[in-house]
Amino acid sequence: MIRRMTSAFGVTVAFVSLAGASMLPTASAAPVVTEVAVGCSIRVRPNVWVDRPVTSVPASLGADCAATGAAYASWDVRHTKYGLSDLFIFDNKRSAVNSFYDWEHYGTYNVVPRNSWNSHWDLTQNARSYVVKSGSGITIKPARAGKFVTLSVATIYYSPALRRYRMWPKARVSLQYRACPTCAWKYLRAVRTAANGRATFGTYSPRTRYYRGVTGSSATVWGRTSAVTRR
């Protein structure tokens, strides 16, 4: 008799405990907030060609800046050796232009994030770089005498010291030819210009060919490809 009552009492207590537990309020899980990385990027041409005392260096914002509602963005412009040189600033605008003066340092400039934001938060930014060198030019004039063609080469480059173009001495020029307007270019000869920026080369060519010259880039001068000539 006592066992049965004890057993029944235990079942009753267990039932009440379970029922009470089911009626207790359960704590709701805290919402997980995920911060989405949004950004604003800059676009700048990788090669800056100096051919005058003051050269424009344009930059523009990427499409992601408009998508994120960027109100302001700026980037530092740093020379790899001499440090901070300039800034690109976009204050409610999508393009900016800096000026490069020919007395400044040639070489590589890194465009690195400074700050950017929209009406809600700061934005991530990208980094870019560009290289500054003098511009150059090359001309080739062919002259035929029977089955032989003589190629006269002239090269020039922009001189920051003179603030104008001058003849380019010791420039290495790769002479190339092809047999038809759509044929692949073939290597003919490499020549180096004299102190006056000129060089000549004669070649046996019984049939008409197309010619051009290509100068390679140096540490301070961009290379150039000449116009195509036919002889």
Could you say which structural class the secondary elements and strand pairing correspond to? mainly beta
Residues in helix, %: 10-25%
- Overall, the morphology is elongated
Q: Could you give the count of β-strands?
A: 19
State the major sheet.
5 strands, mixed
Low-confidence stretches: 1-37
**Radius of gyration, Cα only, in angstroms?**
36 Å
Mean pLDDT across every amino acid position: 88
What strand order characterises the main sheet?
3-10-8-5-6
Write the layout of secondary structure elements.
Elements (H helix, E strand, L loop, with lengths): L1 H22 L15 E2 L1 E3 L2 E4 L3 E8 L1 H5 L4 E8 L3 E9 L3 E7 L5 E11 L6 E2 L2 E7 L1 E10 L2 E12 L4 E4 L4 E7 L7 E7 L5 E7 L5 E6 L8 E2 L3 E2 L1
Parallel strand pairs: 1-9, 3-10
Antiparallel strand pairs: 2-4, 4-7, 5-6, 5-8, 8-10, 11-12, 12-13, 12-16, 14-15, 14-17, 17-18, 17-19
